[in-house]
Please model this.
Amino acid sequence: MSTRIEVLPDALQQIELAATWWREHRAAAVGLFSAELAAAFRLLERQPDAGRLYPRRLFPHLRVLLMPRTRYHVYYEHDDAGGVVLVRAVWSAVRGRRPPLRRGT
Model:
């Protein structure tokens, strides 16, 4: 059985901004970000614990999965009982800082 992916509004906004930036600034690979994100989501549907644990005070079960070609991270929590991966952020690894994570967004 596959796990359902749910993208929270903050993460959706980050995805839209990153995809737009990638299309506008990476002429040789305009679809790379979107393709790699889709592959990451497919992986998480099949193997929701594929990312490494990255616990935070408010998010003790937070995980992070690297998208190696674009160097973005998918920050998520896996609710095994509910059968859902809750994507909290999609954030560039080259920023040198963590994404702002808030409860419920």
The radius of gyration is 13 Å. The longest helix spans residues 9-25. Strands lie at 4-7, 52-53, 63-67, 72-79, 84-92. The chain has one domain: 4-95.
